[in-house]
Amino acid sequence: xxxxxxxxxxxxxxxxxxxxxxxxxxxxxxxxxxxxxxxxxxxxxxxxxxxxxxxxxxxxxxxxxxxxxxxxxxxxxxxxxxxxxxxxxxxxxxxxxxxxxxxxxxxxxxxxxxxxxxxxxxxxxxxxxxxxxxxxxxxxxxxxxxxxxxxxxxxxxxxxxxxxxxxxxxxxxxxxxxxxxxxxxxxxxxxxxxx
Length: 195
Ligand code: CUA
What we know:
The chain is an alpha+beta fold. The chain has one helix at residues 20-50, and strands at 80-83, 89-96, 99-101, 104-108, 112-119, 124-127, 134-137, 143-148, 153-158, 171-177.
């Protein structure tokens, strides 16, 4: 009988109990798998970062949040969608408790779109579901994200960082229109779909 073996570690354990060396082997196996997963994830971050596919949450571009709306890039008259000489568009928005200005951005489909957003008060979030657009909007910094919309449609854009009492009601929209329906803008013109 196994129970007669003098060394207790070599005795056959009762039903349901796994011997020590088998536990150690299994732990080693899982540890190796964990290390391999960690290695793969680190490699993905390094590769996507190096190829510029991965955007950091914010540019390292600073701006004074207290005078943001008074002049310069984020002055009221400069907000909305602007056409660039290379055919792309730039959308400039301001996030504040509890709204985005403009509340609706109009952009053409199949066109590179650059969003530039800044906050006048606290941290807000900018997220377009089913796209690669997801960034924090930190006061004092300009958040920049680039994307291209392949299909026309309306994207609801919730603020996805808790920013106070009105957070749940902080929404904006991005209206993607077919390229030929997008208005031709002169360099100083801005467009939006805010009423
Ligand atoms: Cu703004 Cu939540």
